[in-house]
Amino acid sequence: MLGQRAAGVTGVHWTVEARDWAADATPGTVRAEVARQVRPGGIIVLHDAGPGSRTTPAALPGILTDLRARGLTVVPLRDLRGARPGTLRDMWHTLRGS
């Protein structure tokens, strides 16, 4: 398996887990989960492969409509203001709450 760095991929921690991969997930449950968890500046993880591939594409138009109706703007990660690469130390402090 090719490592993340070797593949040129930067990892990101998310704030919303839509559970689109769950066996009982439907487009409706995925949409509701995002609506329940999302806050301004949040990062939503959705899957376009594996189990999520059967629910995410159908849920996405509704998710986008809901976010825009709440006045939220959808942007790619590279355009998220204040985003910066983190370190393991940052993650440790976040987990510890310090």
UniProtKB/TrEMBL annotation:
SUPFAM superfamilies reported for this sequence: Glycoside hydrolase/deacetylase
Source domain of life: Bacteria
Residue ranges of coiled coil: none
Matching PROSITE patterns: NODB
InterPro entries attached to this UniProt entry: Glyco_hydro/deAcase_b/a-brl (IPR011330), NODB_dom (IPR002509)
NodB homology domain mapped to chain residues: 1-75
Name by which UniProt lists this protein: NodB homology domain-containing protein
Organism: Deinococcus actinosclerus
Organismal lineage: Bacteria, Thermotogati, Deinococcota, Deinococci, Deinococcales
